[in-house]
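Lab notebook, bench 4. Continuing the backlog of folding jobs that were queued last week. Each job is logged with the same field layout so the records can be merged later without manual cleanup. Today's entry covers Carboxymuconolactone decarboxylase family protein, a 126-residue chain. Filled in by technician R.K.

JOB TYPE: sequence-to-structure
TARGET: Carboxymuconolactone decarboxylase family protein
LENGTH: 126
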Amino acid sequence: MLNRITADEGRMVVESLSDISPELGDWIIEFAYGDVFSGTELSLCTRELATVSALTALGNARPQLKVHIDGALNVGCSPDAIVAVIIQMAVYSGFPSALNGVSAAREVFADRGVGATTANSRTGER
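JOB STATUS: finished
OUTPUT FIELD FOLLOWS
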């Protein structure tokens, strides 16, 4: 599941822990991806959007946010949906966290060659 969602990024994170805290790497694989992300109650896209929302709201987890924005794309979430959940966090965690989230999304989208299509959802203009 880790590979399906995060591809090489997740593997590299787990491998980077091998010299200092291999247990943390094991927990990531076994609990986060083995138990939680493998559940059947929610689609992987919904799980990734929830993760992007939470990491955006935290405001202090930019590397993890970028991995999960990428992961959301990997499991079929649209760039527009990703941006929408990040913008939603402005209401609950403030504009700075939403602005930082949009910045992270912009970087991931640029790396992937994708982009959001809703430039102005209030007026319907693009």
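OBSERVATION: Residues 95-112 form the longest helix (18 residues).
SIGNED: R.K.
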